[in-house]
């Protein structure tokens, strides 16, 4: 007889519903005789009056399996032959598993209804589960997904092992449970699908512990990458919502955000706190609110003793009345559980963090308080680092901002605009446009390596030095050489300071200097370490200026700083910048170089704005500073250039030409007389001590400049003549009458110049006196 065939099917009243042919052979009754009759009646008849053969058949069938099976809403009984039964050992194993296994075992039929379960499964539901679909028997968080998984195992036979299944919170339970569930398909000896076996292991505590460890790891990984208090707080709430809490609210003491020292505990009741970060499902909740915390609340209590608190939120909680604004937010959110933890470091309070969970989540537990404290301890360290950096950054930015030109000086022969994008840590980049004698302008761009206060102070010292050196009217290469000496002395002084050797860096400075002459329409440029300048022409084209690179300032070598003189016609734009802009803007293949190609006569401030907006964020390695200077020619009627003979006739010729030009310019009589005297003395000295050819130049711009050039290289010196001396007073008179005077070296010879305002005060004229 084939194993696995159903012999008899009996309904829940004990009547035969089906009588298979193997049952006819085994018991001797036909289907017509057995169907509809009570099993008890058949058994009684067989025992009382059956023949020998029928009794043998009953003996043969004595070992059968009677199995309850759900059919619709009724229980039917399958009678199976002895071949489908299990051994006594198998029965013992099954009994032990279902009675004593810590795993909750369920037997599901092919309709996924519960037909049997182990003792450990009794506590999973408060209602009877036999005969129900397993998703109806237990309140699962996602019953549709779980039914799909079980159905897939039923159809494919591929088991699913250790699947995490979350339950809906049941009445009388503090938390929602999590089970590790495995599904296996049941088959008979003919590979017919009978149903599933599902095992469930409660792993709630394990999962909660792993989640807490994962949260701490996420906070340590994600919080504190940037040195900004607000950013650190934003990183904190992003790390804990929704992994740990449904809502997170960070409030930091206002003085801490400004970089000041955090106050000691207990914090004064009037100390203002700023809400620096908030994340949760409350739409439109205001951030950046500044206010002191009301007394009598868990939040103010935390700032008194730095002890975290686990608070159950009830409608009648007294502390809610002390803070109506926060109470309204809590009411809108449906929050029922709260942890308030301090942001504190070394006994000083930095702020508080509030963690909320709403009605769809389990309330916080005591273990969660320890997690919140660990999270806030890490955040407090990051906030304090950001606070200290912020304080230094504010000082450095203030120093740098005060040391830069305020505001940029205006020049009649050149238009200047600058683009300055400070580095996040502050730095030592600077620019200058310094007026020089003869209507010339010195354009300077510099960059001190490093960041912070030290770089800003070094920048200020070097900027002061270059202003002092520029007053000597030196050429750009000489300026860089002397500035390098100054930077070297600063580096030597820094080396003697008691500094952390791990933070000690050599002082290196890049600098570029260009001197523009609006009369000659030339520009002399020298550079030390900075990128090659660019010249943008009025026709919309641009080209790099081939200026040989010099070494960085304060370097150890003695390499020179070669200077290059180029023609720069009126309307051209000279562009100089720091290394942070070299690849993007100044390089011929830079992605933003086309902006310079099309500059033409466009507004320089607009061009700076376009470049600033087009620069990529986060790719710069230092401060981005760029100086743009558009040149103008000095009108010809503002310049007198006159060649002079190399004999005593030069002085009267020069005086006459100067008198005529000053009258054309409308210079007042007193200034004209003084200028004639200065011209006479300068020309007289050139005739006496210089070498022909001689040249006189008068420039009428913001100052009235007198220049006399000759071919001699010796520099004149002021002599203090005795009372009886008839000569030696020329330069002394010039120094007394002029606002300033000096000597400038040329490629062939020198130029002695003197400047004076277009009009002089009465006091100044009296001090200078008139020679007899």
Descriptive terms for the model:
elongated, 31 strands, six-stranded mixed beta sheet, 35% helix, six-stranded antiparallel beta sheet, alpha+beta, 772 residues
Overall description:
The chain is of the alpha+beta class and 772 residues long. The chain has 23 helices and 31 strands. It has a six-stranded antiparallel beta sheet, with helices on both faces. Helix 15 packs antiparallel against helix 16 (476-495), helix 20 runs antiparallel to helix 21 (669-689) and helix 21 packs antiparallel against helix 22. The longest helix is centred in the middle third of the chain and has 38 residues, at 366-403.
> Which structural class do you get from the secondary structure elements?
alpha+beta
Main β sheet profile? 6 strands, antiparallel
Number of strands: 31
Biggest sheet, spatial arrangement of strands? 12-11-10-15-14-13
SSE topology sketch:
Blueprint: E1 8-10, E2 16-19, H1 21-27, H2 31-34, H3 39-49, H4 52-60, E3 65-71, E4 74-80, H5 88-100, E5 104-109, E6 114-117, H6 134-137, H7 143-156, E7 160-166, E8 178-187, E9 193-202, H8 204-222, H9 229-240, E10 247-253, H10 254-257, E11 272-279, E12 290-292, H11 298-305, E13 309-312, H12 318-322, H13 324-333, E14 335-345, E15 348-358, H14 366-403, E16 414-421, E17 428-435, E18 441-448, H15 452-470, H16 476-495, E19 509-517, E20 522-528, E21 534-536, E22 542-544, E23 549-550, E24 563-567, E25 573-577, H17 582-586, H18 593-597, H19 604-614, E26 624-631, E27 639-644, H20 650-665, H21 669-689, E28 694-700, E29 704-710, H22 730-737, E30 740-746, E31 749-756, H23 762-768
Parallel strand pairs: 20-23
Antiparallel strand pairs: 1-2, 1-4, 3-4, 5-6, 5-9, 7-8, 8-9, 10-11, 10-15, 11-12, 13-14, 14-15, 16-26, 17-18, 18-19, 19-20, 20-24, 21-22, 21-25, 25-26, 27-28, 28-29, 29-31, 30-31
Helix pairs in contact: 8-9, 8-14, 9-14, 14-15, 15-16, 20-21, 21-22
């Amino acid at each position: 007889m084939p194993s696995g065939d159903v012999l008899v099917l009996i309904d829940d009243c004990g009547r035969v519903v089906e009588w298979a042919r193997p049952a006819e052979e085994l018991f001797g009754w036909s289907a017509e005789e057995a169907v509809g009759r009570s099993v008890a009646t058949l058994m009684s008849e067989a025992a009382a009056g059956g023949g020998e053969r029928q009794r043998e058949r009953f003996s043969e069938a004595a070992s059968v399996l009677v199995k309850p099976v759900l059919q619709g809403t009724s229980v039917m009984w399958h009678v199976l032959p002895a071949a489908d039964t299990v051994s006594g050992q198998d029965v013992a194993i099954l009994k032990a598993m279902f009675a004593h296994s810590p795993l909750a075992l369920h037997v599901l039929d092919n309709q996924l209804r519960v037909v049997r379960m182990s003792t450990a499964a009794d506590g999973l539901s408060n209602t009877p589960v036999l005969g129900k679909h397993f998703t109806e028997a237990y309140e699962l968080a996602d019953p549709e997904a779980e039914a799909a998984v079980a159905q897939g195992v039923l159809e494919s036979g591929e088991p699913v092992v250790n699947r995490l299944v979350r339950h809906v919170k049941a009445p009388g339970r503090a938390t929602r449970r999590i089970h590790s569930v495995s599904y296996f398909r049941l088959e008979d000896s003919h590979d017919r699908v009978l149903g599933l076996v599902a095992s469930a292991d409660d792993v709630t505590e394990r999962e909660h512990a792993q989640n807490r460890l994962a949260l701490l790891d996420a906070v340590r990984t994600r919080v504190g990458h940037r040195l900004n208090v607000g950013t650190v707080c934003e990183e904190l709430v992003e790390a804990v919502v929704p992994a740990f809490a449904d809502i997170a609210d960070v409030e930091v003491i206002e003085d801490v955000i400004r970089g000041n020292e955090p106050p000691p505990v207990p914090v004064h009741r009037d100390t203002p706190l700023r809400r620096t970060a908030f994340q949760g499902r409350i739409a439109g909740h205001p951030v950046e609110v500044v206010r002191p915390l009301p007394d009598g609340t868990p939040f103010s209590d935390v700032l008194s003793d730095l002890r975290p608190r686990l608070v159950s939120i009830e409608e009648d909680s007294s502390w809610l009345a002390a803070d109506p604004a926060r109470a309204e937010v809590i009411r809108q959110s449906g929050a029922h559980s709260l942890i308030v933890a301090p942001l504190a470091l070394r006994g000083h309070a930095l702020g508080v963090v509030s963690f909320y969970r709403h009605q769809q989540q389990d309330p916080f537990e005591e273990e969660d308080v320890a997690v919140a404290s660990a999270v806030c301890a890490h955040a407090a360290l990051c906030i304090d680092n950001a606070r200290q950096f912020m304080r230094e950054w504010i000082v450095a930015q203030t120093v740098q901002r005060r040391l830069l030109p305020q505001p940029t000086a205006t020049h009649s022969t050149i238009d200047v605009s600058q683009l300055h994008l400070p580095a996040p840590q502050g730095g030592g980049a600077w620019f200058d446009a310094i007026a020089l004698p003869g209507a010339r302008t010195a354009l300077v761009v510099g960059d001190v390596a490093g960041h912070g206060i030290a770089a800003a102070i070094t920048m200020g010292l070097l900027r002061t030095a270059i202003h002092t050196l520029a007053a000597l009217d030196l050429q750009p290469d000489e300026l860089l050489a002397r500035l390098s000496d100054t930077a070297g002395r600063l580096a030597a002084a820094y080396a003697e300071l008691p500094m952390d050797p791990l933070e000690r860096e050599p002082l290196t400075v890049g600098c570029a200097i260009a001197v523009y002459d609006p009369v000659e329409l030339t520009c002399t440029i020298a550079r030390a370490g900075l990128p090659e300048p660019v010249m943008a022409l009025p026709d919309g084209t641009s080209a790099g200026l081939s200026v040989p690179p010099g070494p960085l300032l304060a370097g150890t070598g003695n390499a020179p700083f070669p200077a290059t003189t180029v023609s720069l016609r009126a309307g051209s734009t000279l562009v100089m910048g720091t290394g942070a802009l070299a690849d993007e803007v100044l390089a011929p293949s830079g992605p933003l170089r086309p902006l310079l190609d099309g500059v033409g006569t466009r507004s320089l401030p607009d061009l700076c704005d376009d470049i600033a907006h087009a620069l990529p964020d986060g790719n710069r390695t230092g401060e981005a500073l760029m100086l743009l200077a558009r040149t103008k020619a000095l009108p010809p009627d503002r310049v007198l250039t006159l060649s002079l003979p190399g004999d005593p006739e030069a002085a009267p010729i020069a005086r006459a030409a100067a008198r005529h030009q000053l009258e054309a310019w409308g210079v007042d009589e007193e200034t004209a007389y003084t200028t004639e005297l200065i011209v006479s003395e300068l020309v007289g000295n050139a005739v006496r001590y210089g070498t022909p050819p001689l040249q006189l130049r008068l420039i009428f711009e913001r100052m009235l400049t007198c220049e006399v050039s000759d071919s001699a290289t010796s520099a004149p010196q002021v002599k203090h003549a005795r009372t009886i001396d008839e000569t030696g007073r020329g330069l002394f008179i010039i120094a007394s009458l002029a606002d300033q005077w000096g000597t400038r070296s040329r490629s062939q010879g020198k130029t002695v110049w003197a400047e004076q305002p277009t009009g002089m005060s009465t006091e100044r004229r009296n001090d200078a006196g008139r020679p007899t």
